[in-house]
Amino acid sequence: MAIAAVLCAATAISGAEIVWLFLLAGAFGALYYGGGLPKRPNNGAAISVSPLGLLAAVQGWAWTGSGSSLGSLGWFFFKAGAFTFGSGLAIVPFLHAGLVDDHRWLTERQFVDAVAMGLISPGPVVIMATFAGYLVYGIVGAIVATVFVFLPALLLVVIPGPLIRRHENHPRLQGFIKGATAAAAGAIAGASIVIAGDVIDSSWSIVIGLIGLALLLQTWRKVPEPALVAAAGLVGLLVFG
C-alpha cells in the first residue's frame, strides 16, 4: 500500500513514470518479502547481459525517413516495453512523459486519443503504442512502435522463459514482482490523475468520469472496459459534437 501511494504521488506530481522508483520498489519487495538481506554473497551467479545496450548503439540509425527519427522512436518504445511492470495501463505514464513532455511528438489530446484507442481496440492495451507510432511517423512509425514495444517481452521473458520458470517460486523473485506490481498500481493511479487534469474540464466530462468510475468499481456485474470507453465516446459525440 505504501509503495503504491508513493508511486501514485510521484507520478501525479511529476506527470511522468519514474523508472528508478519501479526498480527500487522491486528491490525493496525482494528484500522485504524475500526474507531480508542476504546473509552471504551468492557465489557463482551468472552474469546477465541486457540487450538495452545493443539497441542504444544503433539508436541513431536512420532506418527510413529523415535523420534518426525512427531510431529514436524505436528506442523509446523499446524502453517503454522493457521498463513497464504490471498491467498494460502501467505503460501510460511512461508514454505520456516521453511522447508529450520529452519529445513532444504528440499533444495532450492526441495522447488521450491513443489511450482510448488502446482500450477499445482488440488485443492488449499496449497496442496504444501502435496508434501513437502512427501519429508520429505514419504506417512505418506504427510498425516500428509495435515491434519495439513487444521486443523486450520476447528477449527478456519468452526466450528465457524456461529458465525463469525454474525459479518462479524463489522468494526473492516473488518479492520483486510484488514490489514492482504495487509500484505499477500506484503509477496507474497517478497517471489517471494527470490525464483527468487534461480532459475533465466541463460539467459533462465530470459526470461521464464519475459514472465510468462508479461502473468500474461496482461489484455486482463486471463492465468490460472497451464497452465502457466506447459508450462514453458515443455520449461525448452527442454532447460535444
Broad shape: globular
Percent helix range = over 70%
Order of helices and strands: HHHHHHHHHHH
Number of domains: 2
Number of strands: 0
Query: Largest sheet at a glance?
Result: none
- How many helical stretches? 11
Q: Report mean pLDDT, rounded to a whole number.
A: 75
Outline the secondary-structure elements.
Layout: H1 2-14, H2 19-32, H3 52-57, H4 69-82, H5 91-102, H6 108-120, H7 128-158, H8 161-166, H9 171-199, H10 203-217, H11 225-240
Helix pairs in contact: 1-9, 2-9, 4-5, 4-7, 5-9, 6-7, 10-11
List keywords for this structure.
241 residues, mainly alpha, 2 domains
Please characterize this protein's 3D structure.
The protein is an all-alpha fold. It folds into two domains: 177 residues, no CATH class; 42 residues, no CATH class. Helices cover 70% and strands 0% of the residues. Helix 2 runs antiparallel to helix 9 and helix 10 runs antiparallel to helix 11. The radius of gyration is 20 Å and the shape is globular. The N and C termini lie far apart (41 Å). About 12% of the residues have low confidence.
